[in-house]
Amino acid sequence: xxxxxxxxxxxxxxxxxxxASSSGNCGGREAVEVMAKEAKKNDLILHSSGFVxxxxxxxxxxxxxxxGEKGVNQDCFIVWEEFGGQxxxxxxxxxxxxxxxxxxxxxxxxxxxxxxxxxxxxxxLAEASLDPDFDLQAEKKxxxxxxxxxxxxxxxxxxxxELEHHRRIDSFNSGTxxxxxxxxxxxxxxxxxxxxxxxxxxxSDDGNLEPVQLTIDFKPNLPQEAERIIQCKGxxxxxxxxxxxxxxxxxxxxxxxxxxxRAFGDYCVKDFGLISVPEVTQRxxxxxxxxxxxxxxxxxxxxxxxxxxxxxxxxxxxxKSAKRLVECAARAWKRKRRxxxxxxxxxxxxxxxxxxxxxxxxxxxx
Length: 366
Prior knowledge:
- This is protein-serine/threonine phosphatase.
- Keywords: Hydrolase, Magnesium, Manganese, Metal-binding, Protein phosphatase.
- By secondary structure, this protein is α+β, with helices and mostly antiparallel strands.
- It has a domain of 255 residues: Phosphatase 2c, domain 1.
- It contains eight helices and 17 strands.
- Strands 1, 4, 5, 6, 7, 8, 14 and 15 form an eight-stranded antiparallel sheet that branches.
- Strand 4 and strand 5 form a beta hairpin.
- The radius of gyration is 20 Å and the shape is globular.
- It starts with a helix and ends in a 15-residue tail after the last strand.
- The N terminus and C terminus are likely disordered.
């Protein structure tokens, strides 16, 4: 409790309270950029296939991406250990681009989100700590969640606005999903825009690892998503040669045909129901929770939650867990979806405890 209180007071003293401008800048932007540069220099940030294992950290993160058969790889990811200079914080995320400029959009959002989120979090934290009605002792966990949720909502709105006016990236018919996690101490905060998915592996009472899906795949046919799109005059339907694949269409054109209902960019359908608002959730990590998998739909289209947990938990070397999951998914594509071009496939495996998983069994699906 003392550490968390001092952190509130420290941010309040260190960052001036300024309203965000239309570009999403905040009072601590320069300080955040310095933090990011230092983190890169100290190998605390990784955005290529590999792993992050900082001495003394409870986190171990494995990352891997494989280009599909549709051209350039439009997936990307990031891990930032000691996020914001805080030893007990980590940020990681996966981004799945689509459209002609999708790989540029995905990389731009990956580049912008961590710093923008950290900046907005610092501002929100400082503002909350200076509020005379703020009572940290009463509802610490609730306040933490509300602060992160507010910061994520503000960040995503600013990023989407910035993308629309970016001079070098054409996001009118291109976009990206974004699935990110912040670990702060023994809590994780998950924010999802799109149809990538986060799955937690947790120990059951009988000693088996079980999957817990932490996010919703935001597909256009979900009732609440379809209702919003239709109310905005957009359309949702499947093409004849893609039964079961619901897409978002303009009112009077068979375009763009987006297979997700939330994304950054894609301004051609932003007035017709597509949104970039994240779903933000929280989970408190227990000793039973072993790891979480963040992956693009290239994994989940062919690998079940249970299979993903089994693959990762049975990999002897945790550093290779993401690569093994991606390679298993690539083989499953060729087996289950013959004649369909393999999608880009990317995964981040975030382990919560420094010790390897010992003596656990993952029951296979029947």
